[in-house]
Amino acid sequence: MATETLTLGKALNTGLRKALENDPKVVIMGEDVGKLGGVFRITDGLQKDFGDQRVIDTPLAESGIIGTAVGLAIRGFRPVCEIQFDGFVYPAYDQIVSQVAKMHYRSQGKVRIPMVIRIPYGGGIGAVEHHSESPEAYFAHTAGLKVVTCANPQDAYSMIQQAIASDDPIVFLEPKRRYWEKGPVELDAPLSEAYPLHSARVARAGTDATVLAYGPMVRTCLDAATAAAEDGRELEVIDLRSLSPLDLTAAYESVRRTGRCVVVHEAPGNLGLGSEIAARITEECFYSLESPVLRVTGFDTPYPASRVEEEYLPDLDRVLDAVDRTFGW
Amino acid sequence: MAKGDPGVTTRGRRAAPRSKRTASANAGDPALVQLLTPEGERIESAIGPDGTEYRVDFTDEEYRGLYRDLVLVRKLDAEATALQRQGELGLWASLLGQEAAQVGSGRALRTQDMAFPTYREHGVLYCRGIDPIMPLGLFRGVDQGGWDPNEFKFNMYTIVIGAQTLHATGYAMGVHMDGKTGTDDGEAVIAYFGDGATSQGDVNEAFVWASVFNAPLVFFCQNNQYAISEPLERQTRVPLYQRAGGFGFPGVRVDGNDVLASYAVTRHALDNARLGQGPSLIEAYTYRMGAHTTSDDPTRYRIASEVEAWQAKDPIARMKAFLTTQQIADADFFASVDEQARAESVHLRERVLAMPNPEPVTMFDHVYPNGSPELDEQRAQFSKYMESFEGSAH
Asked: Which chain A residues contact residue B209 at CB under 8 A?
């Protein structure tokens, strides 16, 4: 079995290539996805090999990208739309929330919109405003959409293919600051044997506290767990992977063992995913908890200027600080 | 004309009676394509702004068929309004006054063509050969549309203003990508919207997309002069059909109360699209005789004399005058159409009243094609909760 070391970005590119090869109805569309290969080069080389009817450079209007993709889906295509940056998805918000999400429901199952909306998200790259946001809660709050995010190259490779093969409309969030991180990817494993798209996974086993994270924060939490281990504290890190639906089965099992739980995300804390997760953990694990579920998140400010983003974003120390507090309760 | 058959036969064509009037006789608006005057006088042909000559060549049977369509869609629409007033529908968006624009364009569609309606295209739906009961579940509140667009070649109603123009554009791009343009039997797509929608970003984005991708698409704007209370002047400083020029495709204004002209310009635009000549915009100049919806009160924002002036341009009256003076139809025919309309509306009413309320638990159905464990759990909890009332007095 061919295992290669790829960056997360290259793993996505390879997964997209596979999807284009496997299904002639798959089309990629977005701004600069063709000749340029996308501003992050995630679609690099695909238009050259599959043509401009499969990899479509669109006019510069996000609602138009998603709205026309709805029509293509009704026609029988499987559109994979790229939104160039998180902060630019809002012009498409109406089409995503009012049209993409509801079409199957309104039609009583007669219309399927097998669309993937790829969005590079999150901060940490020193970008100007509107380029570092974490909009996942907006989409996870919307019935009819599924929301997933990958944290490593292997998941990037398999999850993008699973998302494209799924008939559900899926918002696929890509942790842009992890695009260049490398990891092993099994290229030939059949998709049917890949880890299920909507399941969480234990990224590091531990016994003393449970840390829940997704996307770009998984790396941060794994680093925190390494540091904690040096202090003799074993953190269990769970990569949630699917934000809608949430799979908290492993989290419940873990928290019942550890009695302590910290949820970590870049998005602002107020009404973020962490709030929902904390509520559910409390409902399910009430008698096992030694302390309240704590959240480590971005602050309830607009995403700040990049020179202070390191202080805005949860980091290893803030994660460990929260873990300490669960022990001090 | 057979219901659902938009084709024009070549048998027994009736030459248009010669008229001294020409299109340029439309003193108020020389750009308006008109083939039947408000008085019911036939105009042989009309020239569009790009020099296209529009004419129709119908048999007597087809003329009578168009009249029948107009009367039927108006009667069914009136029945739906009455059903709302009686509390049987939650809302109704009446097409009153816009019958000719809808019947003309609807009959111009060929079988393989795809339509993307707003929520007011009951007349187009009827002309597609679709049972008029289909959208009433939405307005009664027992479903949210619920039909398969591809089965009927008629998309679900779209309530968000202008959103469907992008769907139509994407669908038309797909037609092109499927290689279904460039021949006489190619496919074309029509997107309906109103004058208010032309201010929406989605509609302008659809114009851009359709243009640069050369999509086989007809943008059919029914300019009924009002977006709820706001008059056309609040949406535009230029005639709407002229907007097309800026996007790089042709635009034409047609008398939307003239079923013949509406048919002619739409058929021409659709055929151009299917042949691979790209999109175009039709502005069907008409008037919303009724309220925006049954929740609206137009007396607050428009004067009676304006409505009366448009009453004189009624699409059905002019067709009836034409059929009568040309002896294409007689009193027996008109009576039979009225009787058919009455019977169909009674039948519609009976079926609306018989629509069952959905079971509450069905609200969990079809949220996702592949389902969701979270929803499954909520459904189970809800079912258990509902079952807890079984056997109780409530």
From this structure: 58-59, 61, 64, 68
Task: Give the number of beta-carbon pairs within 8 Å between A and B.
Answer: 140
Is the separation of the CB atoms in A329 and A292 below 8 Å?
yes
Catalytic residue among B120, B292, B349, B379: B292
Name the residue in chain B with its Cα closest to that of A144: B367
What count of other Cβ atoms lies within 10 Å of the Cβ of residue B142? 15
**If one looks up domain B23-353 in CATH, what number appears?**
3.40.50.970
> Among candidates B74, B78, B92, B202, which has minimal Cα distance to B136?
B92
Q: Does B174 touch chain A (CB under 8 A)?
A: yes
pLDDT at B20 over 60: no
Answer whether B217 touches A (CB < 8 Å).
no
Mean pLDDT within B236-250: 97
For chain B, the domains span 23-353, 363-394
Answer whether B230's CB lies under 8 Å from B290's CB. Answer: no
Gap between the Cα atoms of B16 and B351, Å rounded: 41
Q: Please state, in angstroms and rounded to a whole number, the distance separating the CA atoms of residues B146 and B168.
A: 18
Check A58 against B209: CB less than 8 A apart: yes
Which helix (H) or strand (E) segment is B114 a member of? strand B114-116
| Biggest CA pair distance of chain B | 79
For residue B15, pLDDT over 80 is answered with no
Which residue stretches of chain A have pLDDT < 70?
1
The count of residues in chain B is 394
Count of beta carbons in the 10 Å neighbourhood of residue B40 = 16
Q: Which ipTM score applies to this complex?
A: 0.97
Residues of B in contact with A67 (CB under 8 A): 163, 165-167, 169-170, 202, 205-206
Question: What sections of chain A are H helices per DSSP?
Answer: 8-22, 46-50, 62-75, 93-94, 103-106, 136-140, 153-165, 216-230, 249-258, 273-285, 309-312, 316-327
Beta bridge partners of A237: A204, A211
Q: Is the pLDDT of residue B246 over 60?
A: yes
Which chain B residue shows the shortest CA-CA distance from A54?
B177
Q: Active-site residue B379, yes or no?
A: no
In percent, how much of chain B has pLDDT > 90? 90
Q: How far, in Å, CA of B210 to CA of B203, rounded?
A: 10
B173·A72 Cβ contact <8 A: yes
pLDDT at B7: 41
Q: What is the DSSP letter of B154?
A: B
Q: What domains does chain A contain, in order, with CATH numbers? A: 3-193 (3.40.50.970), 201-327 (3.40.50.920)
Burial class (CB in 10 A: 0-12, 13-18, 19+), A240: buried
Q: Are A264 and A237 in contact (CB under 8 A)?
A: no
Is B149 an interface residue toward A (CB < 8 Å)? Answer: yes
> Phi and psi for A25 in degrees, rounded to 5?
-85, -10
Tokens of B97: 């006054």
Q: Is A139 left (phi over 0), alpha (psi -120 to 50) or beta?
A: alpha
- Average per-residue pLDDT for chain B: 93
B366–A108 C-beta distance less than 8 A? yes
Q: What is the pLDDT of residue B30?
A: 77
User: pLDDT tens digit string along A228-266?
Assistant: 999 999 999 999 999 999 999 999 999 999 999 999 999
Comparing CB atoms, the residue among B156, B206, B372 nearest residue A107 is B156
Asked whether residue B306 carries a pLDDT value surpassing 80, the answer given is yes
